[in-house]
């Protein structure tokens, strides 16, 4: 039988499934990665659920800053629930196969929650600016109705941006290898396996990155420039430090979210000489670490949340 027929038949068989990857070239060591991932997953669920419970039950925390934090916790939970089951399946049970539709669904929710989180960080930067620039009218300028509208706008933006992506993937034929590079599904990873022109996918992905990630980072930078200008105009050094201290948790959340994302992009673009294990570690850090660190940072750095958690466990 000609080789072309073999490839065609293989593509017909594999078209509806993809294979996820654990530790490249060392499948026998996958179980070593499973336990740390399980611990991270458990801590993510516990930490974010505790944050949500504390904010809901503590009346004094029903302020814009903490409402945004609760939305951030929901986004982190959604990202973990969307990715960790398949990751643990790969590393713990060597369950590598995922159906085409399940892969596309996972891809949709991963990107949706990521762009939602980016929007939340922008809203939190705006919130910190208002709180420091005009603290006496803080509650008046950001009432619950405005917070709800901002939350709906953030979710709508994430949904509208990612909604076309599954259809852009579904139109592509797949006749190459069906082995993905990670233990979860991403748009770029699936797209690279297609045996057709992916220019539309590439352009749309570029448009999303520039119009959301790029714009969000610029807005956050401008917000903090204005915050610094406001803080420097305060006469009392104690008040300056107090104002800046309210931003520490948010700055940590920004670094926790954007640094792994940029790191993965840099590694994929310029790190072709690096070991595949580096790709695997960066991909796992990119997905698993931010959702577990956010509740830890806010629990440690926010006095009201820290005290309420201590009372709850006592």
From TrEMBL:
Residue ranges occupied by any G-protein coupled receptors family 1 profile domain in the UniProt entry: 47-298
Spans traversing the lipid bilayer: 32-55, 67-92, 104-126, 146-169, 202-227, 248-270, 276-298
InterPro entries found in the cross-reference section: GPCR_Rhodpsn, GPCR_Rhodpsn_7TM, Olfact_rcpt, OR51/52/56-like
Primary subcellular site in the record, as a coarse category: membrane
Domain of life: Eukaryota
Topological relation to the membrane, as annotated: Multi-pass membrane protein
UniProt-recorded Gene Ontology molecular function terms: G protein-coupled receptor activity; olfactory receptor activity
GO terms under cellular component: plasma membrane
Sorted UniProt keywords: Cell membrane, G-protein coupled receptor, Membrane, Olfaction, Receptor, Sensory transduction, Transducer, Transmembrane, Transmembrane helix
BP GO terms, sorted: cellular response to lipid
Localization per Swiss-Prot or TrEMBL: Cell membrane; Membrane
Pfam families documented for this protein: 7tm_4
Record family assignment: Belongs to the G-protein coupled receptor 1 family.
PANTHER family: OLFACTORY RECEPTOR 51H1 (PTHR26450:SF53), OLFACTORY RECEPTOR 56B1-RELATED (PTHR26450)
UniProt name for this protein: Olfactory receptor
